[in-house]
Amino acid sequence: MTCRQGEASDHGNLGNVFLSRGEYLKANEYLEKTLTIRKEIGDREGEARDYANLGAVFQSLGEHDKAIEFHQQAVAITRQIGNREGEATGYGNITAVSQSLGKNTKAVEYLKKALAIKIEIGDKRGEAADYGNLGTVFKSLGEYDKAEEYHMKALAIKKEILDRQGEATNHKSPKSNIQQ
Predict the structure, then answer these.
(1) Which of helix, strand or coil describes residue 137?
(2) CATH numbers and ranges of domains, the chain
């Protein structure tokens, strides 16, 4: 590890500590420094992480448009470098911001992108999670048949991979108001 890589790592770690503590402006300050260094040294994987972390900062600050912008930059980089898992995670992050804005149609769009990648890379646990999340979004839209369909797909995968806890969570009606 070079001196600059170590410096970027230290700034990033401090940024994440401040993010965890809810000190978002401090987190932003350190993450911006990290991003600058990673761009200088050509660390694309690190850049993608930094953009995602900055997206989390701005989501926490309620600046959702800026959060989505940072998450989209993370997705663009992960796509360029061929990190399919990171790309799916980025779509999940955009989904979360979209849901917090009540933009459930956008949430479905990004969840389906994440799901397609999870299927492609064979991430069964992630696939089940995305099917479950789609079920939840469709439930919030009042589309109970679709919600049931996606929850059933999630349940089938959880049974297949022997995820007994996840299986138990899935055994409720998507039409109920009971929260998990």
Answers:
(1) helix
(2) 3-104 (1.25.40.10), 123-180 (no CATH)
- Please tell me the distance from the alpha carbon of residue 95 to that of residue 101, in angstroms, as a whole number: 10
List, in sequence order, the alpha helices (H) in 22-63. Answer: 24-41, 44-60
Question: Which tens digit of pLDDT belongs to each residue from 98-128?
Answer: 999 999 999 999 999 999 999 999 999 999 9
CA–CA distance, 33 with 155 (Å, rounded to integer): 43
- H or E element at residue 166: helix 164-170
8 A C-beta contact, residue 126 and residue 89: no
pLDDT in tens, 34-73: 999 999 999 999 999 999 999 999 999 999 999 999 999 9
**Widest Cα–Cα separation across the chain:** 56
SS3 state of residue 117: helix
* Cα dihedral value 131, 133, 137, 142, nearest 10: 60
Give the start-end residues of each E strand in 26-146: none
How many C-alpha atoms does 179 have within 13 Å on its Cβ side? 1
Burial class (CB in 10 A: 0-12, 13-18, 19+), 7: middle
What is the value of pTM for the model shown? 0.84
Distance between CA atoms of residues 30 and 18, nearest Å: 9
